[in-house]
Amino acid sequence: MAAEFVDVMAVDDLPENKTMIVEAGSKRVLLANDEGEIRALSPYCTHDGGDLDGEEVDDHEVICHRHGARFDVRDGSVTRMPAVFGLSTFKTKVENGRILVAV
Ligand code: FES
Question: Where are the alpha helices (DSSP H) in the chain?
Fold first, then answer.
């Protein structure tokens, strides 16, 4: 089944260089404002399930506060241990000031 874009929130409500977990249809996704580009990823750290809500985005990376793993928000890849596996990513777009995520 093709992914469907779901309206999740106003782009103005996601501060630059911050993350937020939102509901997108039946899924929870992590939104990241990456220097004005909106990214969407799976919301839990692959190391030990840390919740990535409200984290800082620093130089395109989100940092898990639990043990310091880092992920590139552009493609979900791991950039620092202890995580080994990357995060899933979802397509996003912004229309009329709203963030839409393909789930
Ligand atoms: S749960 Fe994220 S680094 Fe351990």
Answer: none
